[in-house]
Each structure stands twice: as structure tokens, then as C-alpha cells.
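anyone seen this seq b4? input:
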Amino acid sequence: MPQTRNRLFDEFSKLMTDAAGVAEGARREVETLARSQMERFMAGMDLVSRDEFEAVKEMAALARSENEKLAARVAALEARLAKDEAVQTDA
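predicted toks r here
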């Protein structure tokens, strides 16, 4: 009887190992399918890459800085023009 019992446990253990292997294969198959579906979905959305986003972000920061400099320059020129006009009207 002890010999049959060991064989029964061995067969059950082998069955569980095979079932775990099948489950792992199914999990990988589902992950692959989900990944391909997500990639297809994202490809249709026309998303930008991280590198492209960072490049545009840097360009926007530089443009904002340049805009602030130009705004200050225009304000200085307008103040100078107003001062010149005031001097001409007083004269």
C-alpha cells in the first residue's frame, strides 16, 4: 500500500506541475494579446514620444523667456517714447 500511495502522490504532483505550466503559458498568451491590443489602440491615437514632448517643452520654455525679454524691451521703448513726447509738448 505505501508504494501505491507514493505513486498516487507522484502522479498528482506531476498533474499539478503540468497544470501550473499550462496556466503560465495562458498567462503569457493573454499578456501578449493585451499588449498588442494596447499598442494598436495607442498607435491609432497619434501620441507623441517622451523625447518629442521634452523637446517641445524646452522650446516652449525658451519662447516664454524670449517673450518676457521682448515685453520688457517694448515697455522700456514705450516709456522712452512717452518721455520724449512729454518733452516735446513742454517745449
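The chain has a mean pLDDT of 89. The CA atoms of residues 30 and 65 lie 49 Å apart. kinda curious what u guys think
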